Amino acid sequence: MSWIKDVYGTEKPIIAMCHLQAMPGDPYYDKGKGMKDVLDKARHDLLALQNGGVDAVMFSNEFSLPYLTKVRTETVACMARIIGELKDEISVPFGVNCLWDPIASLDLAAATDAKFIREIFTGVYASDFGLWNTNCGEVVRHQHEIGAENVRLMFNIVPEAAQYLVDRPIESIAKTTVFNCRPDVLCVSGATAGSATNPEILEKVKKTVPETAVFANTGCRVNTIEKFLSIADGAVVGTTFKIDGKFENLTDEARVREFMDTVKAFRDRK
């Protein structure tokens, strides 16, 4: 898995979430403050994350609640504008996540030169968003059609707010996903953003597919990240970087720095 260092610049990378505020078309978009406010807050979070020492960032429409499984055009357009305006200020590798639409995520990645995307690519689920189906073969074909072959695909195999329609052992899901779909990364999540990943599930997945990168996807905190990184190949981190550790808040640079100091000390010991 030498590609991890090539893409993220280090082993055991921390990918920080840059959560974009609600945008035009989203139910909670603040029309009075407009897109300038969305852009200003995205810039604040990006700079706080970078100054705090994260290895990479991932832009997501996190406040487009409730989420769609087919993202609308205006959302992708707004995300592209924001990333485009911030491009000269981005100093770390970055990815994108249009919740929850892998085609839209790939289109945005191709337009902005993102290095990776994270999505739900496989499975059929009973979810808060209704019956949630996927078509990985169609997505990967689209990836090649638009020239995005080098965009790394991070498969969330424990979707938030959803459960497989038919119960399957996580080991079976990991094994068949790797065999059939060749993911770059398998992401293991908790129930929602900020909810801790179960380390036992994380370990089961890594033992089942040792040659595939496995990331902890939610709920990593400064007092748990060493445990997660002792199992996983990296982590995606969002809520714990926020002011007071609350999902709704902006990023707190001091919290980021404290977290990354712990991560760097852990990596130095390995």
UniProtKB/TrEMBL annotation:
Listed SUPFAM superfamilies:
Ribulose-phoshate binding barrel (SSF51366)
Q: Which family does it belong to?
A: Belongs to the BtpA family.
Q: What is this protein called?
A: BtpA/SgcQ family protein
Q: Which species is listed as the source?
A: Porcincola intestinalis
